[in-house]
Amino acid sequence: MLRIFRNINGKHKEKFVDGKEYLLDTKNNNQPAEFESMEDIFKLFKKEGHDITTEQDLMNNGINVEEV
Length: 68
What we know:
The chain is an alpha+beta fold. It is 24% helix and 25% strand.
């Protein structure tokens, strides 16, 4: 499974575990959202109107991906 997050720096860093702000799944008790594939992540961003089609596009927008 994959999770996406932003790195948080500065005074707000201590509010996030390891300085990572995860995309939360509101339908799953606000746990970090998990995706089966990169294609699922790209579909989410496309649905929200963002032109993100590669992992490099995600990184350029400050979004990181980790495997869990």
